[in-house]
Amino acid sequence: MTEEFHRIRRLPPYVFAEVNKAKAAARQVGADIIDLGMGNPDSPTPPHIVQKLVETVADPRSHRYSVSKGIPGLRRALAGYYARRFDVALDPETEVVATLGSKEGLANLSAAISSPGDTILVPNPSYPIHQFGFIIAGASVRSIPARPDDDMLRALERAVRHSVPKPTALIVNFPSNPTAYVATLDFYRELVAFARREDIWILSDLAYAELYFGDVPPPSILQVRGAKDVAVEFTSMSKTYSMAGWRIGFAAGNPRLINALTRIKSYLDYGAFTPIQVAAVAALNGPQECVAEVRALYKERRDVLIRGLAAAGWEVPSPEGSMFAWAPVPEKFAHLGSVGFAKLLLSEAGVAVAPGLGFGEHGDGHVRIGLVENTQRLRQATRNIRTFLASHDGVTDAEDAGAPLHLERA
Q: pLDDT digit of tens for each residue in the chain (410 aa)?
């Protein structure tokens, strides 16, 4: 009975655990830690959404089991969003299913469509569930470049020629977590043409569709003619409406994939609490000024962070979308790797970030910085980082990462 369960054996040690342990220890001794590690929105859910939840909770009829695939009004509301935002027509009955956040939907669809031995193409680095949903289901993952460019397209062609068995599905995520890359509609056209030609499913994660900082909103892959023949897309209420803890998301697109996910879910859950679904309808159908306000908030934070890091001597690309900056580990700390650098940054600057290794081995040269604190705290973080960087002459032993804290107490 000492042997570990088969599916658990396929999961590597949790990379973020080391940083989380150090963060907890620092706080235990009273250190003021500025936590930019988790993509956890700190803004309150807009009042009209909360009010609809409260109003619905007061009706005892709403306390019963709900509908696994989502109440009809919620599926219609998501279809309405796609029509307004992307000019994409969706059938709420056959092309939309509500999920308990996009993460649950991705994991359950992975289980529904893959078998042990299947090959799945996943960008590296990428959000962990993109690969581990399939790994848990028994499939094998082949890494491809994460940037939406010709290198990714060439890698896809090589994967088809050299993978045995031939890949059955491809994951994409733009604006992406953690890299913040943004794809164009022309790039999606190339992907759809590839998938239709090679008979490969596409699972697109569009959770950050409304967090963009340029003039052109990120497109949906479903805008491409013929995309619904091969693609399904996941969206989420978490970031757009600051509803992360509410756990409401969607899958939309190819009817066969939607049916597979719906069938799996029917065995696993009764859907989200009905008042939460009703409040999500109010979010999608109600006033959208709150979405623009959230976008402006993250843009302001992005600018404060990137300017502050540049002043500290750390040049970090300014993200075009998402709620993250994908920061290369400064050259003089490269030998520590992302985990060692993140621990050192925590211990000496009091700033927690996510090590890039947690998103795949090709992320080890970066850390992910979340825009999840107000501008005052972000300025404090960049001041701390500036002092930290100035205090090092470039010679840092890996053993020193995680040294005792000498930080201001909260």
A: 556 787 787 777 777 877 888 888 888 888 899 999 988 999 999 999 999 999 999 999 999 999 999 999 999 999 999 999 999 999 999 999 999 999 999 999 999 999 998 999 999 999 999 999 999 999 999 999 999 999 999 999 999 999 989 999 999 999 999 999 999 999 999 999 999 999 999 999 999 999 999 999 999 999 999 999 999 999 999 999 999 999 999 999 999 999 999 999 999 999 999 999 999 999 999 999 999 999 999 999 999 999 999 999 999 999 999 999 999 999 999 999 999 999 999 999 999 999 999 999 999 999 999 999 999 999 999 999 999 999 986 545 544 444 444 444 33
Query: CA 218 to CA 90: how far, in whole Å?
Result: 19
CATH of 6-44+290-400, one of 3.90.1150.10, 3.30.930.10, 3.90.1150.30, 3.40.50.2000: 3.90.1150.10
Bridge pairing between strands 231-236 and 96-99: unpaired
| Secondary element (H or E) of residue 367 | strand 366-370
Q: Is 370 helix (H, G, I), strand (E, B) or coil?
A: strand
Rounded to an integer, what distance in angstroms lies between the CA atom of residue 233 and that of residue 113?
A: 15
CA 143 to CA 155: how far, in whole Å?
9
Identify whether the C-beta of residue 80 lies closer than 8 Å to the C-beta of residue 250: no
What letter would DSSP give residue 208? T
Q: Which amino acid is at 110?
A: S
CB-based contacts of 280, cutoff 8 Å, min separation 6: 49, 74, 77, 98, 237, 243, 246, 248, 272
Q: Name the CATH code of domain 65-285 (choices 3.40.640.10, 3.60.21.10, 3.40.50.720, 3.30.565.10).
A: 3.40.640.10
